[in-house]
Amino acid sequence: MNTLVQTTPWQRITEELLLIVGSSGLITDESESLVYECDGLAIYRQRPKLVVLPTTTEQVAAILKVCDRYRVPFVARGSGTGLSGGALPLADGILIVTARMNQILDVDLANQQVVVQPGVINAWVTQAVADQGYYYAPDPSSQIICSIGGNVAENSGGVHCLKYGVTTNHVLGLTVVLPNGEIVELGGAVPEMPGYDLTGVFVGSEGTLGIATEIRLRVLKQAEAIAVLLADFTTIEAAGETVSAIIRAGIIPAGMEIMDNLSINAVEDVVATNCYPRDAGAVLLVEVDGLEAEVPVLQERVSQICYAQGARHVRIATAAEERLRLWKGRKAAFAAAGRLSPNYFVQDGVIPRSQLATVLKEIEQLSQRSGYRIANVFHAGDGNLHPLILYDQAVPGALAEVEALGGEILKLCVRLGGSISGEHGIGSDKACFMPEMFSPADLETMQQVRSAFDPKRLANPEKLFPTPRTCGEGAHHVNAYPQVEVF
Amino acid sequence: MNTLVQTTPWQRITEELLLIVGSSGLITDESESLVYECDGLAIYRQRPKLVVLPTTTEQVAAILKVCDRYRVPFVARGSGTGLSGGALPLADGILIVTARMNQILDVDLANQQVVVQPGVINAWVTQAVADQGYYYAPDPSSQIICSIGGNVAENSGGVHCLKYGVTTNHVLGLTVVLPNGEIVELGGAVPEMPGYDLTGVFVGSEGTLGIATEIRLRVLKQAEAIAVLLADFTTIEAAGETVSAIIRAGIIPAGMEIMDNLSINAVEDVVATNCYPRDAGAVLLVEVDGLEAEVPVLQERVSQICYAQGARHVRIATAAEERLRLWKGRKAAFAAAGRLSPNYFVQDGVIPRSQLATVLKEIEQLSQRSGYRIANVFHAGDGNLHPLILYDQAVPGALAEVEALGGEILKLCVRLGGSISGEHGIGSDKACFMPEMFSPADLETMQQVRSAFDPKRLANPEKLFPTPRTCGEGAHHVNAYPQVEVF
Q1: Domain shared by A356 and A374, yes or no
Q2: A192 and B222: CB-CB below 8 Å?
Q3: Which residue ranges does the record assign to the FAD-binding PCMH-type domain (chains A, B) (predicted)?
Q4: Quick one: pLDDT at residue B6?
Q5: According to the model, what pLDDT value does residue B22 have?
């Protein structure tokens, strides 16, 4: 007979995980797990019960088998730069950190593909192929720190997504560990495999379907030439109309960004580019790329369209240093907004491009009605808005009012045929807004698909979809927003 | 009390369907349903029990509710041009023909979108927007007759998919009737909606997840200039290497097609283009498009690469008439193959582009070992092969040998990291080959997703996935291949 030893389930789970990852791969100490209690949406905080740091697909599979057996929920975390609380841990769950899965497994330039582990940093992919003239296109502002695994979970974008698409357009295949610990291959080395496109379902699923442990990425050839144009307009509506006119002319710039007068003055106060005119209603930044023979034609056409739409002046930069200078203000926009006000709340919504002028007018009305100033900075080509609501958290009730205002902006986006998230994801932050956008039948279909991958609801539960606990009667939506530098 | 009337379930189903679509929308007569007994893969034939021709989403929903209530399986059919038997009816099932759902519902050029019913013909979409300078990119060879609904089911491609992508890259949103009759919206007017990308799952699901009744398509601006190059090589391997060299140079042509010596001589016999040299090992057709300023640069670079890779001659056409002349031989290739032999069997497989030379050598070896001549015509840029196996059906046993040889080619594609279907789909034809490509766990995950949409397995059962009845012990795979003109 064995000696009876009384152990709790968590003790047994800990022992089993130790056998899988060793003591260096397991964090049980509360002070050590502190660093993992939140992601880029820093106001939601929760320490996980255990933190595991696997290095291989097999270790992840073994860990998820333990989770499945004990019915313990898990959350995967890359670099923790997400802005919607998608990597927020669970008090009674395991946090699986992919930081040690940081190997580039294969570089196959003949087929323009790179296979990486999920902890590989976005910028490393480009670094691995740049000397051969290639790059990885999706470029979130956090690209020097964010992980590919996180990019896959959030279907991350960036300023060049207008022409080159978001993460899902660059993921060819995935090795995925399902929540029951089974390993499956989705997609592969050739595009458009038969059967259902489960690669596409997994990308952007915000950690709710399993953990990707190998990711096959497409890399692109670098453009021969690039030009950046900065056009200034007396009204933001004119800048918005110009975006539509450029697209209508058959030109697809690599990126198109708009900043309004409030943002322009904030960045000139802080970084003094001396390029952004303080009296402009808005500036429009346009980047075009392509062949040496093509870019001069494109920049000339874009410039003509800007003038035809009422631009006062169009500045064109082709040399790298001068291009960076024009981008500098845009890149500093969020940090600069922090100077305008003690706090700001950044919203992320999308509208069809044709609705740009309408949405801007309505946001202005919402601002006037509520008394809160709103700075507008956005990926205009994609219709992806980032309104920054300025407020002071020290004023009682301000946060709740600002949250309500942010919600009004999301509902406005939906009403105009758009979306409640452009690139930051739903996560913990916007799950309660999903019914604004999807019918009960639409959401139920998604839940059925979720059950196909995760019948026990162990993979990042309470994210992405509304739950009675987080959005039902009596759920109190406490929130505040950090001043982080995002794009 | 009601009078007791004994009716069979099919009588009751017929009555219920009559109430939904009226007598003009229902075909019960066997002679009238004859036309629906097969699709482009004409050798599989089966008359359906009933044929219904709805006109609206609501009618489709009502029909599927009847199917759900009586547990009657259904198959959707567009124009019936599919080449894998995806629209093959079931003896005890309902065939839902979308031919009367032929309305273009919305044209929104400001957002480059068109909303259509599924019976709209592919070419009509371009016709609806061409005068404004737009077009719909996916161009299967059957585009003047195939329906958008069928294109969505099969994720159809075409010769311009190398640069512009296949159907899934051009579908933004879908109204779908689920097999239980519920109506859901997948995707929408803006790309990259939050939640799971179910639009992507539905496109290419070959009718197994429900019926798309409204389809939101992206349309593109027409290119300013186009050039077609015809390069002739002494070996097909050199033509294959040239394809890789062009891509390596950072050029993405609109299309790249290769034809081998056998195909060249067949088309010159039949259509006499007088452009394709009869002594060439292979010809490579390259189409480049873009700005007026860009195309001359691209054509010059492609031409130089062709010569550097050993091309004997490169012919360049920019005028529309001359471009069509260079394309003429390629377009006639399949029809011409019919002259080489009493019958031919067209295979559809994919390999990574880097494996082109290898796969061609191995196909040549398979040809020599089996004694069957194989003509090679393919979308080389995508690695999408269409080997044509020439045979005579009158020779006893020939068909079975050719089928086996076709299967060997598919296995070869999988072994080289490729796929068993490039663009014709799996349907009835290749379901038994799915386990060559996917592990049991991979297939099980797809089945789970299928159950999320269709728990009762009413939507096009026995297609796409292997079943014991069609692929198990004792299943007899009888087949022969029609001589249809495909691209």
Answers
A1: yes
A2: no
A3: 44-222
A4: 82
A5: 97
B contact residues 4-63, partner A, Cβ 8 Å cutoff: none
Whether A441 and B193 lie within 8 Å, measured CB to CB? no
From the candidates A114, A183, A197, which should be mutated to test the interface with B, based on the most B CB atoms within 10 A?
A197
Can you tell me the distance from the alpha carbon of A429 to that of B461, in angstroms, rounded to the nearest whole number? 40
CB-CB under 8 Å, A351 with B434: no
CA distance B129 to B121: 14
Q: Residue A85: name the closest of A29, A153, A179 by CA.
A: A153
Helix A261-270 × helix A320-331 angle, to 10°: 110
Block means of pLDDT (10 residues each) for chain B, 487 residues, are 76 97 95 92 89 98 98 97 94 97 97 97 98 96 95 94 94 98 96 94 98 98 97 95 94 96 94 93 97 96 98 97 92 86 92 91 95 94 93 93 94 96 92 95 97 98 89 52 36
| Cβ-based neighbours of A304, under 8 Å, separated by 6 or more | none
Dump the DSSP string for A311-339.
-SEEEEE-SHHHHHHHHHHHHTHHHHHHH
pLDDT of residue B3: 61
Same domain? A464 vs A374? no
Using N-to-C axis directions, what is the helix angle for B320-331 and B261-270, rounded to 10°? 110
* A367: amino acid identity, one letter: S
Q: Which of A67, A97, A127 is the last residue of a domain?
A: A97
Q: Are residues B335 and B355 in the same domain?
A: no
The residue of B192, B208, B355, B415 whose CB has the most chain A CBs within 10 angstroms, and thus the best one to mutate to test that interface, is B192
Q: Are residues B264 and B299 in the same domain?
A: yes
Same domain? For B286 and B301 the reply is yes
Q: CB contact, 8 Å: B94 with chain A?
A: no
* Interchain contact, B420 vs A189, CB within 8 Å: no
Say which CATH number the domain at A176 has.
Answer: 3.30.465.10
Alpha carbon distance A201, A224 (integer Å): 34
B274 vs B281: CA distance, rounded Å:
16
Hey, are the CB atoms on B201 and A449 less than 8 Å from each other? yes
Residues A137, A156 contacting (CB under 8 angstroms) = no
The shortest C-alpha distance from B16 to chain A (Å) reads 25
Residue B461 lies inside a defined structural domain of this protein: no
The CA distance from A161 to A252, in Å, is 11
CA nearest A157 in B: which residue?
Answer: B192
Residues A298 and A351 in one domain: no
- Find, among A8, A267, A297, A445, the residue nearest to B185 by Cα: A445
Q: For chain A, which residues score pLDDT lower than 70?
A: 1-4, 473-487
User: What pLDDT was estimated at residue B473?
Assistant: 58
Instruction: Out of B424, B448, B469, pick the residue that ends a domain.
Output: B424
- Whether residues A189 and B352 touch (CB distance < 8 A) is answered with yes
One domain, residues A110 and A200: yes
Minimal Cβ distance to A421: which of B183, B194, B430: B194
Nearest to A464 among B168, B195, B446 (CB): B195
ipTM for the predicted complex: 0.93
Beta bridge partners of A51: A27, A95
Beta strands in B300-412 (DSSP E): 313-317, 343-346, 349-350, 374-379, 384-391
Evaluate whether residue B182 is within a structural domain. Answer: no
Q: How many domains does chain A have?
A: 5
Could you tell me the residue range of the domain that residue B389 belongs to? 341-424
Using the Cβ of B173 and the Cβ atoms of chain A, whether some distance falls under 8 Å is answered with: no
Same domain for B335 and B356? no
8 Å CB contact of B197 and A203: yes
Residue listed under structure tokens 């509304």: A466
Question: B262: which 2 tokens?
Answer: 């056998």
Nearest to A111 among B189, B195, B353 (CB): B353
State the nearest Cα–Cα gap between B420 and chain A, in angstroms: 8
